[in-house]
Design brief:
alpha+beta, 4-stranded mixed sheet, Phenylalanyl-tRNA Synthetase, Chain B, domain 1, single chain, OB fold (Dihydrolipoamide Acetyltransferase, E2P), globular, 323 residues, 16% helix, Phenylalanyl-tRNA Synthetase, Chain B, domain 3
Length: 323
Amino acid sequence: MRVWLRWLREYVAGLPSPEEVARSLTMGGIEVEALVRPCGESRGVRVAQIASLNPHPSRSNLWVVDLEWGEGRSARVVSAATNLRVGMKVPYGPPGSSLADGSMLKVVDFGGIASEGMMLSDEELGLSGLQGERGILELPEDAPVGVDFLSWFGLDEPVLELSVTPNRGDCLSMVGVAREVYALCEGTSLSLPKLEDPPISEDGLGGLFEGCRVEDEGCSLYGLGYVDEVSIAPSPFWMRLRLTVGGARPVNNAVDVTNYATLLFGQPLHAFDADLLPAKEITVRSGVPGERITAINGRTYELDRSDLVISSGGVAVAIAGVM
């Protein structure tokens, strides 16, 4: 379990130092294996904005980019990225700053044009997968030009890597860890997110879906909801950042919101595309020996009776609570 202190502070006020939080958790039976920096050795990175964008005069695959990075400062960099546009806000590493792997940036000549540092991708910042596509990381429009990238987004605060024992499944969520930290650390206060039950129509799923059946005693409850008229798109930056730092891979808004809720509350969730399911029903059952499933990670797994699966039309479409 990865617990980002910046996120934890939303629920627990008055936190002591990261080292004291780690010590308190470990003494309370929740071992903290490590305190790690989300962006590794990244240092000195700033928020910049693209002021102009022009083709390189002698290198057809390169762009010459003029940046503004606060307090009247400007810089010229050379980039091969294809997702750039004027006005875009980006993480900028000036000469003397460093990447996640510790590499120090300097002025480099590209075909007679000096590149004063570089604009950075999510991978170069130690946040691989945050953007979901190759290129320079695009920052939110409200990120102030010139601020320190790490401090503005809370990435200067460490991540606690917890080793949670099987009897403490309540600490496999941000809310669970928040309760534990509040109980162990004096002088803190707790404020957890409040949930409201969603409205439920009197006719259930209204004929859009036939419903679900539970055929295995290993599952005491299965909740199913149907959401219509959803436009699939990238999730907002703040959610993708929390997922990435928390160890999950952002995919799209439909998938990300379920993973976010799982990280927050510890309740495994999954979103199915109703149009792609073999049938308009869900059945929770045991796996059949020799049955195979291709999971969302693209890998194929062979099932047996010890596996609890989610099926539709007799076809296994998910492994319950796993993927």
